[in-house]
Each structure stands twice: as structure tokens, then as C-alpha cells.
Amino acid sequence: MKILVTGANGFIGSNLVKRLVSEGHQVKSLVRKTSDLTFLDGVSTELVYGDISHPQSLEQALQDVDQVFHVAGLAADWGPYKLFHNINFVGTQNVAKAAAQAGVHKMIYISTVAFHGFGKINMTEDSPVADKLIPYAQTKYMAEQWLWYFQNKTDMKITAVRPGNVYGVNDRTFMLKYLEAMETGKFMEVNKGRSKTCPVFIDNLIDIITLVSREDKANGQAFIATDGLDINWHTFNTKLAEALGVKLPKVSVPYAVAYPVAKIYYEIHKSLGLKSEPFLTPYRINNGGKDYHFSIQKLQKYFGYQPQTDLDPAIEKTVRWYKSLPSK
After folding, report:
1. Is the dihedral of CA 77, 288, 11, 157 positive or negative?
2. Which end of the chain is more exposed for a tag (fewer CB within 10 A), N or C?
């Protein structure tokens, strides 16, 4: 099968490209001229240059393509709304329209669970959308809703995958910083890590993404993608620390203290117009201090899905990658 992967040089995209190539597919990797291609070194994929914000650059990339996996997007808990809107919403529209025009049979959209919000457990695909979403979650939700509308106007089939907290090899966004903080003792839990969380190991996520791409029953459907664990942050953190060979710092801050401090800090950072990443954001405190947990019952019901990589080997593999980095 001929496949295009957008955002192919990133964490999820690069792992997806490697899997698809290993399965014998002809894979085009959409990247920008300025993209860091380290994660694609040695991978037998055709690099095609384009930008999802510029629809004219997508036409050639989508020629003779059967499926498109739309992974590209801006995933961050800070930054101007306009930028998220342009990349996550308008960019998704550009990819979908160009793909349908090119005769692509199916589009798999990598969405997020983030728009369901915090404070609940066992949330499902039908759980309500939270109020006061951050720009990332809001624009990803808008894009997914628009895709369901667009699907009714085209012959192209669409499936959405909503990952939880993704971690694993090549994770320079979350796990790299997280393990660095743990290793250097600059780490603390919120509410002693009692809140439930929703990890999904990258290999398991790729299993889910490729599974729904093959199944007609997935057409027109959204699927939450986590490892299906009943786990809190403290358990997850303890296992990470053990694999890392350090003691988990005992420092914990109450949510009632952490959230207002993070909110004030973030507002000051934003008001100063700083372009650097803020150290604290309300989203991060919510993620660590409120239940953020989802059910994968729909995946199990439709496909009998069970994660193939358990928590302990997933953590061991992640930490082994972290220790192998040149700076270690």
C-alpha cells in the first residue's frame, strides 16, 4: 500500500513510519525543509517536502497515495491561539481536502483525549468536552469535528485516534524532560501522585493506529488509545525512578497550592511576551494533580484489542533509550 505520513520526523510520526516500512508499505514522509530528520536516519522512506499550512505544497505529496496518516500538529500547553488554529485546525482541513481531491481512500487523524478535560476516571469517546480548553485541545477538537462534517461530503473514509499521555523511544517532548528532572532531583509530585493517569507506550499506540487503518469497522469512528491501566502517577513515577536507578524525590506539593501558583506564573510569562517555554503551566498541574483517565472498552469491543507491551518492559525500554542519548 502507498501511504503518506504527515509529521513523519516527530516522535509519533517517526515510530509510525518505521512500523509501516517494516510491514512492507511504500511510505512517503511529509517533512518541512527545516525539519530535523534524525529520527528517520536509515529508514527506507521517500522524503517529500511540504507544509500543512500551505495546501499547494501537499498536491505532489498525495499523488498515488492510498492512505494518509495525519500526525502533524502543534502539541504544547502554551503559545498563541492563532498559531494552534493555523496548524491544528486549518492544517488538518488542508490535508483532508487535498487528500480527498487526490483520491486517497482513507485518512487516519491523530487527535487527543485532552479535550475531555480533567477530574474524571474511565472517560469514553462519548464523554463531554471540557470547558475552557487550552488552544491545543480546542483546535484539535475543532479539527476532529470538522472531519466528521467533511466525511459526509467525500468518498474518503476517516478514522480518529485519541491518544492519552504518550511516552517511549524518541520522546523528547515529555519523557526527556521528565526523566532529566527525576535524575537531577528537580522533580516533585502533585498531591503525592495519587491522581490516576493515562499512559500509552508508543509501540502500543502504533499498534492501535495501524489496526484501525486496516479495519473498515473503524471508518467514521473515534477511538481512545491508552494502555488501559488503572494507575496513578505515583506508581508510574516509582517505576520510572527504579528503572532509572534513582530514588524518587519525596517532595510533593498540594494541588490547592500548585494550581494558583502555576496560573499566576503562566500569566506573568505570557504578559511579558516571552518566547521561551514556561516552567509551570496550569495544564501540567491539572495533568498531575487531577484524575485524567480513560477507558479503551471501545477498542476492545470492536477489535478485541489488548496492549502487547506491558508497563514494566515499556518503562525499561524508554529508560534504556534515555540513557543511550549522547548527553548521558
Report:
1. negative
2. C
At position 150, the amino acid (one-letter code) is F
Closest C-alpha among 113, 106, 103 to residue 147: 106
Domains detected in the chain: 2-171+199-228+294-310 (3.40.50.720)
Inform me whether the pLDDT recorded for 327 exceeds 80.
no
Alpha-carbon distance of 97 to 121, in angstroms, equals: 36
Give start and end residues of each alpha helix (H) in the chain.
11-22, 81-84, 91-101, 135-151, 175-183, 202-214, 233-244, 255-271, 282-289, 297-303, 311-324
Q: How far apart are CA 9 and CA 13, in angstroms?
A: 6
Residue with cell 486549518: 90
Which DSSP symbol is given to 72? -
Q: Which residues pair with 327 in a beta bridge?
A: none
Q: Quick one: which of 218, 219, 222, 223 has its CA closest to 204?
A: 223
Looking at residue 328, its pLDDT comes to 61
CB 28 within 8 A of CB 61: yes
What confidence tens digit (pLDDT) does each residue in 181-239 have? 999 998 999 999 999 999 999 999 999 999 999 999 999 999 999 999 999 999 999 99
Classify the C-alpha dihedral 145-148-150-152 as positive or negative.
Answer: negative
- The whole-model pTM stands at 0.96
